[in-house]
Design brief:
The complex is a heterodimer of chains A (571) and B (166). With 571 residues, chain A is an alpha+beta fold. Chain A is built from 18 helices and 23 strands. Chain A folds into four domains: 124 residues, Alpha-Beta Plaits; 149 residues, Sulfite Reductase Hemoprotein, domain 1 (2-Layer Sandwich), CATH 3.30.413.10; 93 residues, Alpha-Beta Complex (Sulfite Reductase Hemoprotein, domain 2), CATH 3.90.480.20; 136 residues, Sulfite Reductase Hemoprotein, domain 1, CATH 3.30.413. In chain A, strands 18, 19, 20, 21, 22 and 23 form a six-stranded mixed beta sheet that branches. Chain A is globular, with a radius of gyration of 23 Å. With 166 residues, chain B is an alpha/beta fold. In chain B, strands 2-1-8-7-6-5-4-3 form an eight-stranded mixed beta sheet. In chain B, α4 links the parallel β6 and β7. The N and C termini of chain B lie far apart (43 Å). The chains are: A alpha+beta (571), B alpha/beta (166).
Chain lengths: 571, 166
């Protein structure tokens, strides 16, 4: 076994890295076998020995789509963690195999939009060099497991979810029984009290919980999901012991693999199975399968849990005071810095440290897009300020999780020098947005220009701040990659007789009290959207009571007051 | 006749697959064969089957559940599981349940859309025989069993997951 926590960075100097999984010989072997396997498959495809239909699921299970402009390659970022070394490798790939940029996705992954099919095996080999891959980032299989981006550093955490995410990653990687499921399958694990992982809208959502006896274990939901039929997950296991995690998951998967619908791809997700079977009957089937395998060899061991936890121990924190004077004086002397601090910097479990979110939502830049230079620069900043690691969030931003408070101002100045200091985290312009019709073959409508037009409308920061916490999510089609159902304001691109229109919904949330948005009424033309958003915001500002967020006001007053204003004088 | 790989070697196929549930007259028409028959055929023509001179095995389609034949499964030397399309993954679960729940020791044969790139997965789920789709190259397919050196999960072939072997 490798020594946990020791990795080489690009300049070959050793540094201690406390919070990443690091591969041993087994992991490396599997990855190099995979690269060889995919190289062979690609060669057989290019030689005409593998049909399009046969190559399709093979390439999808390696993250490769054939898209509008060029193939798109989606790379797994397990539970969103990236080391500086990995960031630099992504930067290199962006430079040498793409057009100099990459895209952070809404499932904590990274996409390249312009690789050549013939070069994909080489890209996978470069990724394997830094313990990365594109395995199961697409296709009807178990996808990358996601978690809260503040796992391990949040002050309100029950337990760090990442060791369990890694355990699930290994269990789900090349699982032979579940490689051809009825449909894609997404799992999220959340150990923080405030859920930022959208756990309840995953096929399986796992909360780390404590039972009445004070034991820590898992509450497991199934049947959540977005897409065409958005559903909040329902509880299948109120509490399972830690060692039973994998057998419980396997039991759910087996029922789904056997009984999930395969006659209609729009009804093939587990949410439909749970609904059509009924929760009680579904649960019984799962328990029947669980009885067979519970306490069998797939049962986790304490040793394995400890082994995985050992990769995610605290980095080498200094003993520091909260609110150092250097921070206080910077805050009082620089208003821009103070705005960024207020918006993008969150409390850390360790005194003297903060969690910094770098917003990738500068106006005029496609949400989630990042250039090779920015990737390199983030790698450098991570090394200087955050123990050589970053996290990708499902809101398409990047977190530096362990920044000393006395270095926040310095860090901010550096971010500013590279246009990475947008201070709009969680505000109206921090829009979640899929690549949309500009890039994606599935899309009905564009989404990036919609995001930009809204950002331009709300260019005044004081106004943004006074509006406060408001999530706008945009998807270019019903597949809902932009999570529009759980946006406080959701925008969905639809096609009406060849023209692009946008349906607006209100009241969605992916937080602990997860809810799905309601459609407000008839769809709007592209150029109407910024004005519609402005009207919705005006209603909120008019009706809100002290301290109410947009979602709170909406929940109190309902959809009608918004509807009236938006559709007033329509003719 | 499609190529058969069994226990890692190309073998002659001694079984005749009765694809659709025809009437029992097929038995008197071709005496002395070994038939793999659909579940319905097995259920409907017990009298004719008991008088027949050849051996019988069963095949299940992907929507059929091996647990429904739990009583009689051990009397068959071979159970074939169909892949109507290679992307239909239900027969993987059937194979595992045959081995792990029902303790079936006989031959489990993959039939239907059986292609090179799924063989490794099938073998891990307990298949030990593979009737390849007509266009598959047997030598290319034999290499598939070496696609990976190791795996994370415990399966039929290696019941212990990697974390118990690491």
């Amino acid at each position: 076994m490798n020594t946990p926590g020791i990795v080489y960075n690009a300049s070959l100097c050793l540094y201690v890295n406390g919070t990443m999984y690091s591969y041993d010989n087994y992991d490396h072997q599997m990855l190099s076998d995979r690269v060889a396997q995919f190289r062979g498959q690609t060669e057989r495809y290019l030689d005409g020995k593998l049909s399009d239909a046969e190559f399709l699921p093979l390439r999808l299970q390696n993250g490769l789509y054939v898209q509008r402009m060029a193939p798109m390659l989606r790379i797994a970022v397990p539970y969103g963690m990236l080391s500086s070394r990995q960031l630099r490798q992504l930067a290199m790939i962006a430079r040498d195999y793409d057009k100099g940029y990459a895209h952070f996705t809404t499932r904590q992954n990274v996409q390249f939009n312009w690789p050549e099919l013939e070069e994909v095996p080489d890209i996978l080999a470069h990724l394997a060099d830094v313990e990365m891959h594109a395995i199961q980032t697409s296709g009807n299989c178990i996808r990358n497991t996601t978690t809260d981006q503040f796992a391990g550093v949040s002050p309100d955490e029950i337990e760090d979810a990442r060791p369990y995410c890694e355990i699930i990653r290994q269990w789900s990687t090349f699982h032979p029984e579940f490689a051809f499921l009825p449909r894609k399958f997404k799992i999220a694990v959340c150990g923080t009290k405030e859920d930022q992982a959208a756990t309840q809208v995953h096929d399986i959502g796992i909360y780390i919980v404590q039972n009445a006896e004070g034991e820590t274990g898992f509450r497991i939901l199934a049947g959540g999901g977005l897409g065409r039929t958005p559903v909040i997950g329902q509880e299948v296991f109120p509490f399972v012991a830690k060692v039973d995690l994998l057998t419980a998951l396997e039991a759910i998967m087996r029922v789904y693999n056997r009984e999930g619908r395969r006659d209609n791809k729009y009804k093939a997700r587990i949410k439909i199975l749970v609904r059509e079977t009924g929760l009680e009957a579904f649960r019984e089937k799962v328990m029947h399968e669980w009885e067979l395998i519970k306490d069998g060899p797939q049962t986790l061991t304490e040793e394995e849990i400890e082994r995985c936890k050992a990769f995610f121990v605290d980095p080498d924190y200094q003993t520091l005071e909260d609110n150092p004077t250097v921070l206080q004086s910077a805050l009082s002397s620089n208003a821009l810095f103070a705005s960024w601090y207020e918006q993008n910097v969150k409390a850390h479990k360790k005194s003297g440290y903060s969690i910094v979110t770098v917003s990738m939502k500068a106006t005029g830049v496609a949400p989630g897009d990042v250039t090779d230079q920015q990737l390199d620069y983030l790698a450098e900043l991570a090394e200087q300020y955050s123990f050589g690691e970053v996290r990708v969030t499902h809101h398409q931003n990047v977190v530096l999780a362990d920044v000393r408070q006395d270095q926040l101002f310095e860090l901010w100045e550096k971010l500013r020098s590279k246009a990475l200091s947008s201070h709009n985290l969680d505000l109206l312009t921090d829009i979640i947005c899929c690549p949309g019709g500009d890039f994606c073959a599935l899309a009905n409508a564009k989404s990036i220009p919609i995001a930009e037009s809204i950002q331009r409308k709300f260019a005044d920061f004081k106004e943004l701040q006074s509006i406060g916490d408001l999530r706008i999510n945009i998807s270019g089609c019903m597949n809902a990659c932009g999570h529009h159902h759980v946006g406080n304001i959701g925008i969905l691109g639809v096609d009406k007789k060849g023209e692009e229109f946008y349906q607006v919904s209100l009241g969605g949330s992916s937080r602990n009290e997860a809810s799905l948005g309601k459609i407000i009424g008839p769809a709007f033309a592209q150029d109407e959207i910024p004005l519609v958003i402005e009207k919705l915001v005006a209603v909120y500002k008019d009706k809100r009571t002290d301290g109410e967020k947009f979602i709170d006001t909406y929940n109190r007053i309902g959809i009608d007051p918004f509807k009236e204003v938006v559709y007033a004088n329509a003719d | 006749m499609p190529t058969l790989i069994k226990d890692g070697k190309v073998e002659r196929n001694d079984w005749t697959l009765l694809k659709t549930a025809t009437g029992p007259e097929i038995l008197s028409a071709v005496p002395g064969k070994n038939f793999i028959v659909p579940l319905q055929f097995w259920r409907n023509y017990q009298a004719e089957i008991s008088e027949y001179s050849g051996e019988f095995a069963l095949w299940l389609d992907s929507h059929e559940n091996v647990n429904d034949i739990a009583e009689e499964v051990h009397s068959f030397p071979l159970i074939a599981l169909n892949f109507p399309a290679f992307a239909d993954g239900r027969s993987y679960t059937n194979a595992r349940e045959l081995r792990e729940r029902l303790g079936y020791q006989g031959e489990i044969r993959a039939i239907g859309d059986v292609l090179r790139d799924q063989l490794y997965l099938m073998s891990r789920c307990g298949f030990n025989a593979f009737e390849l789709r007509h266009d598959q190259d047997a030598d290319v397919c034999l290499a598939a069993f070496e696609d990976f050196h190791t795996n994370y999960q415990g399966t039929v072939v290696e019941p212990l997951p990697l974390f118990r072997r690491r």
